[in-house]
Amino acid sequence: MPPATALLLLPPALLALAAGAGWCLRPVAPHAGRPVTAAAAWLAIAALLGTWFGGGRAAQDLSAPLPVAGLPLVLRVDALTVFLWLAVLTPAALLLTFQRRTASRAAVAALAAAAALATLAAGSVAMTAFGLATTAGLVLVLLRQEELAGSGAYWAALSGAWLLLAWTAVVLQVTSGTSAYGAIPVTALQLPPAVLLAAAAVLASGLLPWRTWVSEAWSRRCLEAGTFAVALLVPVGFSPLVRTYAVGAGQLPSQQLNVALVALGAFVSLGAALRAQSAPSRRAFLAEAVPLGGGMALLGLGLGTPLGIVAGLACVAGLGAAAGLAPLSADARGPLVAAGVAVLVGVPPAAVFGGWLLAEQAALETGTAAGFAGLAAAVAWVVALAAAVRWARLPVTAPDTEAAPSPRGAAAALAVALAAGVGLTAVLALLVIPAAAEVMPPTGRLARPAVSAAEILGAGTLSVSTASGGWASALLGGPLVAIGLVGAVVLRAIRGRTEAAAAIAGTAPEPLLPMPVTSAPGRVVERIRAVRLPDQYRSLFRPALLERAGSGPPWFWVLVTAALAFVVTR
Amino acid sequence: MLPLHLLALLVYPGLGLVLAVGALAEIGAALALTGDGFGAAVQAPATWLRQALRRPVDLVPPLLAMLAATQLAAPLSPVPPVERNLIVAAVAALAAAWLAGASAWTAGQARTTLLAHVCWILALLAPAVVSESLRPQALGAVVVPAALPLKIAAGLLAVLCLPALLRLGEPECARLPLWLPICGLLVSLFLPPAGDDALGLLGFLVATLVTAAAAIALALLVGRGALYPRLLAPLAIAVLAMAVVTSVLT
Amino acid sequence: MSEAAAVAGAVIAWFGATLLAVADARRGQSLGLLVLTAGLTLATGAAGQPPLAVAALALGGAAAAGLRLRAGRPGWGLFAPGSTSYLVGAIIVVIGAVLVAGSGLGSPAGAARLGALAVTALAAGRVLTVGQRWAALGGASALALGLGALGGATALLAGAVVAAGLGAIDGDEAVEAGG
Amino acid sequence: MISARAPLGRIPGAPALLGVGGVGAVLAVLILAAPLLPVAALPHLTPAARALLLASAAALALTTVLAPHRVARWELLATGLGALGGQAVLMALTDPLAIAAVLLLIAFGFAARTGARPFVERARGPAFAALLIGLGWAFVQLQGAAWVGRVGALALALGLACAAGLVPYLAAVDAEEPASSSFVAWTGFFGPALAISLPGRVLPALPAGDGAVFGATLVGLGLVNLAWGTIGAWRTASDVEAWRCSFLVDWGLALVGIGLFLPDGLAGSYLALLGIVLVRVPLYLWARPALLGRQPARLNALNVLLAVLLAGAAPFAGFPVRLLVLSAATQTAWPLAIPLVAAMLLGIVYSVRLARALGSHHGWAAVGLWITLGFGLLLGVAPSALRALGGM
Question: How many domains does chain C contain in total?
């Protein structure tokens, strides 16, 4: 393997090394785990940017001579991998730096992050399934280390996801002889495997209109492990769905699947917004930040147009920012936290806003039907804004750590989100558009790139400009942030330091909109659990009898054998 | 490019125009709604300056209003038309509207406001979905006969939403920065764009102030009646239905 | 000639298995084992199986019969109350065996297989229905011999060794209680 | 660690036990080393059988030395060596009738050991299996009517399930019974040996129609055991029963893999059987103290990793098994993969329960658990090497 190529694997390697170091250092330096893993995460980001942008940005397929789990070990480091790595590494680095963790938990967290990066670089569906299962397993250890309860929904969803991926890999292997993204013939991507891939993504990223494991992660007493899981696994869940476009030469096998994904995306956003506006606590509100962005991302990705894919990936970037910002804003107070909450619900000019704006534009440009889905997403956006205002009146959950969370974490995460929003044009030009181009190859006789920067970025300006509208993120958003900061400093100098409005303790204000179906999924689960065989039929079905059949003379065995013999002789 | 955008944010059609139009509209609103007489009404803008800007967070509504104002189809705006966006304006204006009234938050009032916000966004976006554009000036210029009924109905709904949107029933709401972005956006979307000259600018300002006056008049008309908010939802549904029909026809 | 010997062997084996099934004491069980071993030996020998394997079967069966005398109720215990079901079973087994393998009756091998099938079925019935350790072990030895007689040299040798090996297992109930 | 240091003298039948152990060890070594010895008469093992025998030896060494026991280690070693010899003979014999006969000897020999259930009851299952295999093979060999051959093929498949103590031939479970006298000896030790060797012995002799019956029966039994195991392990009130059901799940996958007669399926079943011997059985032995209430059930970090292993998730043993069995099912008829995936998903529900039932171990017992986890990791990460070792 050439050294330049090997350098691309530095990020996961650094995290794995840090995990090992943190684990080994426990006896001698019990507090060393956290700084070591945090430093490794930031170093990984630096190394990734350095090696990718310094190395010509060429896609690399790395294959190992030895198979893993009986599967050929193929890793693909291309623009999409780099983008998704950054979407995972940025919140992971923030959380590893600012969340309180013991050395052992920090080590497991770093190892899980390394596994997540390896999963994102997987070159085949089968390897993605292997990686997802491994990451999910490590995250389960992290969750259970922290708190025994509250990981059932997570484990079920992630297991379903990797099983579906494994099944897809098998179907592709059987129909086309390979499950490697780069080698599957376009004709092999029929509807069934595409649906399975999409279903796996939906389960892994919690993209359902009702409360999924992503929101459940916030109902735990301690937030560290759950929110870290969200930061790692939600982007990982999106990767097979995005890669599906690469397999299908830039499109899904059926338009109906596009429509279904777009509709699901809109419903996911609406569901999250409605839950957010009826949240009983601040944590419950923050729990919906990622599902809200996830729905918008799915809406964009489901459109299947070049702008849709770009918008979807931009939403994933915003989602990464939200996954870092929300946990660091939890249980804290002050203007920074309020600003953070505003950013989470898509107030300009942050990264979340940029992604959602592009998703809306992409929906509008795709056609009227998609436009109406965009309309639904816009309504979700408006409801989320209302929920953010209600947030200020929600009771603060007692912090699970000894000291209140450090505002520096929230400040850093906010800075990242704002910087990504102001520099949206750069993010799109350098990361998102190349990533989208990876999955949308040139088509047509002219071999013109399907995703062209000229159609998304304003020519000769620093603004985003598509057919339906534009947004000068740097020229308007940048000055706006600067003016806001200066204004805040001046105002503080004039008015002096005033206390932030304290949250109203005790009960939460009533929801803005009634939520009649909120508890429906829970009720369904309860109903299923409550299903019992009626007493009068119990005597007909007693599994224990099957065991007792072997205690006396085995007439039952003889009977079963005779019955089967009768069946096979018919 | 940056100086022009700074000019747009801080002077025209940004902060400067936002404060000017806001001050005029606030005086009008105070005269019409509180009936304290001209002397007290003139004090309204100063009261906003004194009471609505205490904490750094209070700066957010004017900042967002500035941003929303830059997106309007205002004549002679330094922001190039291709960089303007209805969604940027709408989201910034709605966020500003929420924050402006945040201090006087009650669940009942918030419900009405949310209903108005949802109806307003539907009114703004339904024509945009049909004409597949988010550029305010492009939407304002749409005169396709088949799309006109929808445009008129959406415009009517948008105007009806104004009293709730601007919280005209709440004296303590710091709405001064909201008048231009909200009323100006309606003018940008539902009236043909004015020319890039002094006359056009005058026309735009007059239209914006007339829209503001209409909002005040509506507020006077509906008062605190419970019927008003209930009217918005059916109208919004009707607008949606018209949008669907229009999209099928065109 | 060999056909007649094979058929005779089969009949003797079936009779021995029936004796084993209706025996409720150690001597009757050993007698049954001996008779069925003799019958199987005659039948397999007539069917042309390798003499060494046939001899091994005879030795194994004899050893099992001898070793089974160590435990169990004293006496012959033939046709004790409760034997009727085994007698009926013995008749049904003959019918069943003829249904399955009757077509081979014309050849010595077929007749030997018929006898072995009858022994296997009756011995299995014994193993699966008795409650005493010694009786089950006796039935298991017979089952091993029957299974061995169904096959060739390897099966015959295995059946013989297993029958003898099973005979070596203590059939005393006290061992189980103690254990 | 619960371990009685019983002196030789006081164990009933100690000399016999030592003799059985010695004979078993000699047989196992002889059969393993047969290819290297100049004696042509010695039976040879297939590569897969050799791999399973080695795996069994490794599991025996691990559990004898490090697992918590109530019986003396020397006694466990002697019993284990005897079982190893029996396993070697079962896999080395080529004639199914001889296999059936040896099965009888093993059945009654193991039933003669101390146990909570009566002797006859413990011997009945394998004896019935010997009958089914013997009669089945005899029927298949008969040149009679077609239905006789089909019944023979059915009996052979049922015999395999019966020998392993699977549904519908489940034996009663008594928590107090020593593992070597319980269902584990058959479900976790001799059953896999038969599953590795018997199909290879009988299939070449089966006509196409009878082969189809044999395969279909195995697939059917596999699905039934998969369903019974997953639902049972999830719903049953007893942790011991849950553990037994988890064995049924592995067996379900293995039977489906064998029954499909495809290279992927056979490889999957081979790995599943190795997993039972190398991972599932040792873990069950480690769980015994907690199952008997002598240790509280816990869920520490190691247990959570073991829960991941027991759920069949990567990077552990179950992952390649699931992938290969799904592949074989999809190649045969894709709808067959639906119940398989459903069962695999349900499988994760009980994995945490089983892991909790392992309790927490310290010192050498913990080292043993880590080694078992390592076996699981080896099976999960490097199945290709193990497949090569088993000629798959």
Answer: 1
Residue C83 tokens, joined: 């034997």
Q: Which of A443-457, C28-42, C107-121, D311-325 has the lowest mean pLDDT?
A: A443-457
pLDDT at site C103: 77
Residue C93 lies in a domain: yes
3 state DSSP class of A408: helix
Nearest to D308 among A140, A543, A548 (CB): A140
Chain B contact set for A357 (CB, 8 A): 85, 87-88, 91
Residue C177, in any domain of the structure:
no
CA–CA dist A194, A257 (Å, integer): 8
More confident residue, A121 or A334: A121
- DSSP β-bridge partners for residue A324: none
Query: What is the pLDDT, as a whole number, of residue A315?
Result: 97
**Closest-CA residue to B94 (of B73, B117, B110):** B117
Residue D272 and residue D270: Cα distance in Å, rounded? 5
C178 lies in some domain: no
- A77 - beta bridge partners? A60
**pTM, entire model:** 0.91
Grade residue D3 by pLDDT with cuts at 50, 70 and 90. very low
Interchain proximity D101–C127, CB inside 8 Å: no
User: Which chain A positions have a beta carbon within 8 Å of B58's beta carbon?
Assistant: 491
Residue B250 has pLDDT above 80, yes or no: no
Residues of C in contact with A554 (CB under 8 A): 128
CB of A1 within 8 Å of any CB in chain D?
Answer: no
Q: A334 — phi, psi (to 5°)?
A: 110, 170
CB B164 within 8 A of CB B112: yes
Contact B220, B163 (CB under 8 A): no
Of C124, B159, D331, B95, the C-alpha closest to A172 is: D331
D-chain CB neighbours of A108 within 8 Å are: 301
Domain span at residue C88 reads 2-172
D97 vs C121, C150, C176: nearest CB: C150
**pLDDT (0 to 100) of residue A2:** 63
> pLDDT, tens digit, for every residue of A406-430?
788 999 999 999 999 999 999 999 9
Tell me what percent of the residues of chain B surpass a pLDDT of 90. 64
Give the side-chain half-sphere CA count within 13 A for B150.
Answer: 32
- Domain ranges (residues) in chain B: 2-249
- Per the prediction, chain D carries an average pLDDT of 89
Q: Which helix (H) or strand (E) holds B233?
A: helix B227-249
Q: Give buried/exposed letters for A278-293 (b at 16+ CB in 10 A, else e).
A: bbebbbbbbbbbbbbb
Residue C146 to residue D275: CA distance in whole angstroms: 36
For D313, which of A159, A551, A554 is closest by C-beta distance? A159
Does the distance separating the beta carbons of D320 and A159 come in below 8 Å? no
Residue D101 contacts residue C147 (beta carbons within 8 Å) = yes
**Confidence bin at D152 (pLDDT 50/70/90):** very high
Query: Does chain C reach chain D with at least 3 CB pairs under 8 Å?
Result: yes
Alpha carbon distances (Å) from A240 to A60, B92, B163: 18, 34, 48
On whether residue C179 sits in a domain, the answer given is no
Do the Cβ atoms of D251 and D276 come closer than 8 Å? yes
pLDDT tens digits for range B15-65: 999 999 999 999 999 888 877 778 887 888 888 887 777 788 889 999 999
How far apart, in whole angstroms, are the C-alpha atoms of residue C116 and residue C145? 8
State which residue of chain C sits closest to A552, comparing Cα positions: C129
Amino acid in position A179: S
Chains linked to A by 3 or more Cβ pairs within 8 Å: B, C, D
pLDDT of A213 above 90: yes
Min CA distance, A437 vs chain B (Å)? 24
Give the whole-angstrom CA distance, residue B89 versus residue B110: 21
What stretches of D147-236 adopt beta strand conformation (E)? Answer: none
